[in-house]
What does this fold into?
Amino acid sequence: MYYELKFTCNIKRKGERMKYTGWTICNNEYEAEKKRSRDALFTIGNGYFGIRGFFEEDTEDVDRLGGIYMAGIVGRGTYPAWEGTSRELCNVTNIFRVKLLADKENIRITDKAEDFYQMVDLKSGMYSRGYVYTTNSHKKIKISFVRFASMHNRHLAGQKIEIEALTDNVEIQAGRFLDTNVTNLNKESCEPYPIQPGRNHIIEREISGNHVVTTLDDVDKTRLYFAQHLESCGENRKQVTDEFACGETEIFVLEKGEKRIFTKVVCAYNSKYDKEPEQQIKAFLNADICYEEELRKHTEAWKEKWDVSDITISGNEDDQAVLRYNIFHLLCVCPEHTDKLSIGARGLTGEMYEGCVFWDNEIFKFPFFVYTNPEAARKLLMFRYHTLEAAKRHAKRNWFEGAMYPWQVCEKGIEQTPYNVGAYYSIHVISDIAHAVQQYWNVTGDDEFVLKYGAEILLETARFFAGRVDYDEEAKAYVIRAVRGPNEYDVIVNNNAYTNVMAVENMKTAEKAFRTLEEKYPEELEKFINEHNVTKEERQKWEEIGKNILIPYVKKDKLYLEDDAYLKRRPVDMKKAKPTGKRIIDTTIPYEALMMYQVSKQADVVHMMNLLPHMFTDEEKRIAYEFYEPKTCHDSSLSYSQYGVMAANLNNEEETYRYFRKAAYLDIDDRQLNTISGLHFANFGGTWQLAYFGYAGISEDNNVLYINPNLPKVWNEMKLTVVFRGNRVKVCVSDKKLQLELQNKQGELFVNVDGREYKLTGEEPRIQMDR
Amino acid sequence: MYYELKFTCNIKRKGERMKYTGWTICNNEYEAEKKRSRDALFTIGNGYFGIRGFFEEDTEDVDRLGGIYMAGIVGRGTYPAWEGTSRELCNVTNIFRVKLLADKENIRITDKAEDFYQMVDLKSGMYSRGYVYTTNSHKKIKISFVRFASMHNRHLAGQKIEIEALTDNVEIQAGRFLDTNVTNLNKESCEPYPIQPGRNHIIEREISGNHVVTTLDDVDKTRLYFAQHLESCGENRKQVTDEFACGETEIFVLEKGEKRIFTKVVCAYNSKYDKEPEQQIKAFLNADICYEEELRKHTEAWKEKWDVSDITISGNEDDQAVLRYNIFHLLCVCPEHTDKLSIGARGLTGEMYEGCVFWDNEIFKFPFFVYTNPEAARKLLMFRYHTLEAAKRHAKRNWFEGAMYPWQVCEKGIEQTPYNVGAYYSIHVISDIAHAVQQYWNVTGDDEFVLKYGAEILLETARFFAGRVDYDEEAKAYVIRAVRGPNEYDVIVNNNAYTNVMAVENMKTAEKAFRTLEEKYPEELEKFINEHNVTKEERQKWEEIGKNILIPYVKKDKLYLEDDAYLKRRPVDMKKAKPTGKRIIDTTIPYEALMMYQVSKQADVVHMMNLLPHMFTDEEKRIAYEFYEPKTCHDSSLSYSQYGVMAANLNNEEETYRYFRKAAYLDIDDRQLNTISGLHFANFGGTWQLAYFGYAGISEDNNVLYINPNLPKVWNEMKLTVVFRGNRVKVCVSDKKLQLELQNKQGELFVNVDGREYKLTGEEPRIQMDR
It folds into this structure.
């Protein structure tokens, strides 16, 4: 996503490591300059909320930027989008605002804080944080915070605070608020740009005793409703309301050794996606809400998530925790409460890319849901169905046919990429969406979805490509000119292999879908064909294009080319181009220069082969890997995982593990130097793919589940679940043996393990083999 | 200059016409919303100063943006340049600030002002303005202002104010200041961007009784010195100084019918380009300065300018005035006081493009100076010589050899184009500079310049191209990949004909220069060759490249192609693409989409043919014109004039005149809708070229001056001067006859008129022929 470069801060950070155990990620060091980056790292969420790991008791200006985001909730942006003005993910009311005084002294963290920790418990989706504060008169107080966003009822979030007087009696004043005094971060506030004030998207506030309503500056004038139930054993509780916040404060003396606990449960609704938000809030305020009970249900919900989503590995506790961290965020971010939304590049963990959805949604994150939570996967696809009209408008406005799904879409499916940075060229996103439809269908067998929604997506995307190709008289072939493939360092190319192959695949998939549906649901299909004016001619045209498209390939070398002029570019010395860990474009040569050179920002041909593994020979894959790997600078977070998947499939264990480490630890080590602006969700999905498609070697073709595992030496065993065509199968792999167990009794599953076919049924649900 | 698009305001303006007579451009209508655009239109200057037509007595905020610019005086810009931070032309101290009170009422212009006029007298380079003001108690006062920037002593400027009580006695308070309370305009202050406050570049001020010193925020911490001599017959003059301004006020009663006149002379020096500015200012303050005397010398200097620069036409008074207006600004803007500077795209008339210099400097404006003022032309080239080191650094930083003159340079020759909008590709500027060196040499015969400076420019630019070409095994030819030609609507192309032809010309010119100098100055050349390590091999390489470069040409159609893939792009219906007068990219389809289509922003192949007219046949020119003209949308101000020149050379009278009108009236009619941000100097030069190269048919080849005139029907006669190889010749053309007169007695001039050769000498200085 090339234009990110304008958001990158020039913060110098060395790779750093924290502590990981099987289910926790913990940091024991408070460093002010890394705080905001770790705010991102310790985000929790439930698909409705994304809540960064900001500090409840902050009182600095910066903390108005804390970062609580809600799926699909945006404010008015700053630049012209391709329809109307851009939008941006909106930092909403701070539901966890706390103000603590010890002997009237404002408690806030400083470098002197002792025993600092911040930790996310992956199993239960809880974030906790604490430290020992020393007052000016040398009294020590221990403070800790716990929070969660309920996975059971996604409108709820909980907070617990503990305060303990360690050395002396101390007078504590504790305030807990819903605070609407928040702003977005201004993207240009990073060096070297002049600092700009943050943008405030709240244009109206209604503040009451225990709830607030804010109105945003977006086109829908969205109203957000928040309410809270506060629990405390105190007696001097006082309601407080000002122009921005509501809540209560209480004053009490904590005796030496004494501990006080406060809890609260917050509830949120919005006018954009929720029904009757006002009534919902009223009901919540009237209900009997208990923190511990909500916590229990939340934890239970997380357990169910992990039952199917976890990948257990033994042999390396770090890798285990960090792999789970990657999966954890995919679970945290998925908007399962609606089918109107999908997942942004940075999820709900930061403001970069304005919360928008890109191609990596379908290609990187989506497979995780398809193979572990098909209902969620279906909802994510429904977002593309709901925005099909916008994609058709986009095609028309750009003088094309069919549906031109934009590169970077807001919640309404409208192109948000600023003009003239390449969105127009990045058309592979369109076939990527079609690919996801096909993948969903292959893995789930959900005909009903395809008939009702998927076929229309396949049709309109195929139509787009049929109109986007040109016939080149010289080459005697169809060509696709002026595109940008996954390698974004090639500004504009002709006949990008990935793009052309996927475009043809898109048209083939549409035709195949019609044929399949024709057989199974002839009446429904006929109705569809009539409704959408699908002509015989256009279907023939798809076939003709598929047969005669130019795919750049050097026959004698069995080498697929990224694009038809790749070999005409100058080779580049990677040591000269990228002397440090920083991106090429941030160190040696500007983005626009890279057109001159054979340099790939990320996997491109290799990625194409990962997507369609059964279309290419192992030799072609090896040749491509060896050709492109040294030419790839991995300046995109989308690169490591795809090279890793390919390395695994080529049985290159050392390389695979090297890439696994790079991908899995990407945010934890802040490898891209921009975790501060949000976590890298494509890479989370990619890391999962590396484990799932790479190490476990899972793929599918023609109704058969393939498993070709290849564990790294440092792992002894790996366990995971596959949900395939209504079956749920547990896979357990070690270097010695492989075990499969079908979990549903009515199931029937064809598997191909290491090249041999098996069938699992309710009667014979288990196979085990030595390897 | 593609990235201008971000600066364009969406102000809806209809084409509008003002009054022109032979020597004046006058506007008799005050319209608030057009004021700032007319501020630009009524700019005056002397190459040291550029002073927009802002109102002296303004008191609104906006008037802090008035607009007085000084050549090469810049402040710190807002974005990263390719070395350091960008710079921008700095709005300096308002030397003409006036505050007028009538019966204590602030006089400022409103829509109710009567008899408004603003006028520039082209002959004397003076701007005058006036109106009748009516006080709240219905008294009428006539006010007028006159100003000039001295063409005699470029450090001086003069101001005259007249106030007349028309109907009643009135108490007047008149203040005249040097006011440092000024800011730059913020580029993003146009819709739809949020309004930003203007940037103030003054970081320090010293205000004294009659002079001020300001320090700027540029890297040089430039100090600007201003002083004034005030004349007045009043007796109640009072010196006034505050934190921003100094000057004097006086109060007096004007009786009905009485008129009072104030004059002042201002002087300016700066620490960046002037010697001993402080002493100069002191000397000025101690001198006996008289407004009328300075005005006399100024007017005399303008007369000398016009003697050689004027093009007289009879038959159409509008065209006469407007053609002069175009020439006038070329005279106003040329920094003849130094050889360290050149001319920005908007001269000193607005802040767009930050005052930077582009290719159009050499290709559009430079010819005017070569043919009318060779000393000035030499100085403009010296700017490129002084920035040769910066161009060599730029090449190195971009992994190239030789000198890579940047696309958009600040006064120090550093690339100022924001990253990633194509500066890296726009390499034709490099050969354009070499072309200007050759043109200067051809027209002046100034061997000394070439030996001392020009040869080095030719060498290093040739070296750049020798390293920039690639050998294409498939095409069996040298190619230049990833460039942007003059047609900026084609984002990136390979083998742009203009670029390749000019690159080869660059290398040929270098080789030819060495051969010529070898013969005439063998010793000096040998020294040069040794000093710069010019090898035989590299000179041979230039020749080889020249012989084997790919120039896209369709032989059977005799058609030169803009680039090697031009015909692969889709044809476009211009009515669909550009349904209104607005630019395509502002109405129908974004800039990045245009790569898909056969659409040219401006002359490209046609322009190449204009630059090297003797290299192409008339048939090839006609074919190119007819092919590209309907595909050209003229969204650049650089287009009309070149199509006009070609139309003239093809004897297409109607088309030529149509293009002449479009070019000549471009700013006066605000055709590009951005005159507000500064006048279009390339178009001024282009308009002159249309008259000079087009109508008069002047060109040169091999020491011979060619004249092939072709007047439009509406013009009866055209007179102009050519300075060629030390000779000054007056040309007088009508449709009936042509007359040439050599003005220098020692001269000797070979001319070719309508295909026949003549020789003019001191003995036979005149020829006249019927046509």
Observations:
- The CA atoms of residues 462 and 655 of chain A lie 37 Å apart.
- Residues 1-16, 188-195 of chain A have pLDDT under 50 and may be disordered.
- The first helix of chain A runs from residue 35 to 41.
